[in-house]
């Protein structure tokens, strides 16, 4: 598929190893620096995400989840700048209790001030542990802890001028001429029922 540029779009890929599989969480921010970002600018954004992970995600994430690198790219052009942030990495999560299988996850819904599928995003947690789930659902304290971590991401990026965004590259099933970014205003857990990520099953993980 041809590259779809996203003006002022920065993509952040947090790349993990979990139980022998490769998996990642992908986020978007908007670039407000005027001229296209250089690799050093992207590395600074990668550091912001590392600081968030280290303070908010690491304590509740399985010790079997290893954050290996944070790959940050300028998506405004196919030949835009790129940076790989690795300072302090690889690093393991801090929850040493029994890990759940790699496909077991929970969806965090990322909301904006607009309605419609183009203006909502999803992030699927990596590295849940047995103590965080009862039956088919996250316990209330665990859900609250994960949601609080994502709330910090929204607020900390807003304070840095690089807002967390939802990126839409398609509308009604057709590619847009250019991707559009919409700032995230809130993170929500619609329900505590665990979800399944088939691409994180053994033998399927890649990035």
Descriptive report:
The relative contact order is 0.23. The chain is 19% helix and 38% strand. Helix 1 (39-57) packs antiparallel against helix 2. The chain has two helices and 13 strands. Strands 1, 2, 3, 4, 5, 7, 8, 11 and 12 form a nine-stranded antiparallel sheet that branches. A two-stranded antiparallel sheet has the order 6-13. A two-stranded antiparallel sheet has the order 9-10. The chain has 207 residues and is an alpha+beta fold. The chain has one domain (9-200).
List keywords for this structure.
nine-stranded antiparallel beta sheet, two-stranded antiparallel ribbon, 2 helices, globular
- Record field, number of beta strands: 13
Overall pLDDT level: 94
Percentage of β-strand residues: 35-45%
What is the number of independent domains? Answer: 1
SS field, number of helical segments: 2
* Biggest sheet character: 9 strands, antiparallel
Low-pLDDT residue intervals, each spanning 5 or more residues: none
Question: What's this model, at a glance?
Answer:
This protein is of the alpha+beta class and 207 residues long.
Layout: helices, strands, pairs:
Blueprint (H helix, E strand, L loop, with lengths): L8 E10 L2 E10 L8 H19 L7 E10 L7 E4 L5 E2 L11 E2 L1 E6 L7 E5 L8 E2 L2 E2 L1 H21 L3 E8 L2 E15 L6 E2 L11
Antiparallel strand pairs: 1-2, 1-3, 2-11, 3-4, 3-5, 6-13, 7-8, 7-12, 9-10, 11-12
Helix pairs in contact: 1-2
